[in-house]
Amino acid sequence: MLNDVFKALSDPTRRKILDLLKEKDLTAGEISNHFNMSKPSISQHLKLLKNAQLVHDEKKGQYIFYSLNTTVFHDIVSWAFRFYEKK
């Protein structure tokens, strides 16, 4: 799982998507409004973020809303803090 997370986080567009979702849940269309790229490209970024379990999607009516999966972020921080623990 960590390999997928770090691969997803390596791209600046995906990091910006995560920053946007930090503020509120958004649809793919709302996310794409913040970028100068095609909607299929945004969909590919969202797919990678979902595969890394960094975002959830939920269908509400005719829209799919994306939100952060904070559990994975907690896992990453916990993993990183292990390097600071005293032996």
Strand order of the main beta sheet, please? 1-3-2
* Helical run tally: 5
State the separation between the terminal residues, measured CA to CA: 26 Å
| CATH homologous superfamily title | Winged helix-like DNA-binding domain superfamily/Winged helix DNA-binding domain
Helix content class: 55-70%
Low-confidence stretches: none
Per DSSP, what share of the residues sits in E-state strands of 2 or more residues? 15-25%
Q: What is the CATH class? A: Mainly Alpha
- State the shape: elongated
Q: Could you say which structural class the secondary elements and strand pairing correspond to?
A: alpha+beta
Task: Give the domain tally.
Answer: 1
Sheet with most strands: 3 strands, antiparallel
What value does the average pLDDT take?
92
CATH topology group: Arc Repressor Mutant, subunit A
Please tell me how large the radius of gyration is. Answer: 14 Å
Q: How many beta-strand segments?
A: 3
SSE order: HHEHHEEH
CATH architecture descriptor text? Orthogonal Bundle
How would you describe this structure in keywords?
Arc Repressor Mutant, subunit A, 16% strand, 87 residues, 3 strands, WH-like_DNA-bd_sf, HTH_MetalResp_TranReg, 57% helix, DNA-binding, Transcriptional regulator, DNA binding
Description:
By secondary structure, this protein is an alpha+beta fold. It has one domain (2-81): Arc Repressor Mutant, subunit A (Orthogonal Bundle), CATH 1.10.10.10. 57% of the residues lie in helices and 16% in strands. It contains 5 helices and 3 strands. It has helices spanning 2-9, 12-23, 28-32, 39-51, 70-81, and strands at residues 26-27, 55-60, 63-68. Strands 1-3-2 form a 3-stranded antiparallel sheet. Strand 2 and strand 3 (63-68) form a beta hairpin. Helix 1 packs antiparallel against helix 4. The model has no long low-confidence stretch (mean pLDDT 92). InterPro entries: ArsR-like_HTH, HTH_ArsR_DNA-bd_dom, HTH_MetalResp_TranReg, SdpR-like_repress, WH-like_DNA-bd_sf, WH_DNA-bd_sf. Keywords: DNA-binding, Transcription, Transcription regulation. It comes from Pullulanibacillus pueri. GO terms for molecular function: DNA binding; DNA-binding transcription factor activity. This is Transcriptional regulator.
